Amino acid sequence: MRIVIVGAGLVGIQLARYLIQEKHDVSLVESVEERARYASNRLDCLVIHDEGNNLRVLEDAGIAKADALVCVTGSDEVNMIICGLAASRYPKLRKIARVRNGDYVKLHKAGDRMLGIDHFVHPDVEVSESVLNAIEHGVRGDILEFEGVPYILGSIDITPGCVFDGLAIKDYRKTAPGESLITLVERSGETILPGGATVLAKGDRIHILARKGDLDRIFRLSGRTEQPLRNIGIVGGGRIGTLIAEGLLGQEEETKPSVFSFFKTFIPRKGYRVTIIEQDYILCKELAARFPEALILNEDISEESFTVEEQLDKLDLIITTTNRQEINIITAVYLKSRGVGKAIAMVTGPGYAAIARQLGVDVVLPMKTVVVDSILSHLMGQGVKEVHRLGDGSVDIIEVEIGKDAPAADTAISDFRLSAGGLLMLVNRRGDSFIPRGDYVFTEGDRLVLITKAGSRTEIEKYFGTKL
Fold first, then answer.
1. Is 268 helix (H, G, I), strand (E, B) or coil?
2. Structural contact between residues 324 and 238, judged by C-beta atoms closer than 8 angstroms
3. Longest Cα–Cα distance in the chain
4. Tens of pLDDT, residues 186-231
5. Could you tell me if 310 and 334 are in contact, meaning their C-beta atoms sit under 8 angstroms apart?
6. Which residue, 21, 298, 369, 436, shows the most beta carbons closer than 10 Å to its own?
7. Are 274 and 406 in a shared domain?
8. ∠ CA 161-166-169 to the nearest 5 degrees?
9. In a domain, 163, yes or no
10. Nearest to 241 by CA among 327, 320, 358, 332
11. What is the enclosing helix (H) or strand (E) of 212?
């Protein structure tokens, strides 16, 4: 594919780096000289230092022959204008815009296809949904769900004395209940696609595919018992904090529907007691009017005396959502040390995520990575339905449907190999989901979930997509 990206911030750089690794033809447009120079020095692609809202510049970037345009500048309006400008000359081009204004998203989802834009990506909603999903699963590590199947992918950190410490993968089925599969091992900054001879050790983070009930039993077996999450604290009352509170309490303004009504439905449980801590007094007044059943505290979370006075150590869960990732990590770690049961922290990218996990934060959400994954799912090639990245970004989980006359159709799993290595985790065949065994044969219409080394997506499209 040929993709033009406008905006070389953290999201634009991450997205371009991934697409280049997948052997796509990428052009990057950036108006800030320093960012353009940074991108040019680090990425193997065309980088143009100019304004993206200029058709000549877009054509210099190759938009006439491009398959998609992705606009991720810091301005919603600029992103939308650039997409509209491109649509006026190239209507068949796929156009994706990152926006933070929920009103634009609502209009788009309601059927008003604004400025010819095919997909809006709302960063705050994407991240908030990830938080709510983590809460639904008890905040026990990273959780990934797959559409239409009862299996989920969960992560476990192996501690000294854990039942999995020293266990060889070939003996795993003798220990774990139900039908499950260890799909990935993270060890000392390295991601490993395990084989039967791989031996697990303390300090490893393993990703296990299982049905929810079986995964709960595996969590308990590893020593991670589920704790009730009733008292929840949110540090930061900005857009993300507000959306999380809205998802937990089911509140929305009477005059307009919630932005969540156009995304995945989240049904709030009864009995949540929510506390929101925010420094801005005016914002606190707005939050108090919006969420009358929540406790709104106009305080600085970094004040130790405040933490003691308000008995924040009685919380079951703390969620840190400020725009300062260092404060988010420190606050989460500190409150856990004071007795808070679980912690979720927002960070910018995967580097800080690894640090936060090492410090004991239960769930860490790198916001830019969440947004990039959402964009990638809208840039899917033939047959590919979803793309998710794990660990340090060097491993992908790819959902794919076997197309008509696909080269892999009628091939036994034992005869199939990806050049970079990979593992077929899950098959959904006409509504029946199962972890495949050695006698499985690929069949047209099967939906597959594969875990592969980054760089395999084009090869997967070739094997499983419909022949043209």
1. coil
2. no
3. 67
4. 888 788 888 889 999 998 989 999 998 898 889 888 877 777 899 9
5. no
6. 369
7. no
8. 130
9. yes
10. 320
11. helix 212-221
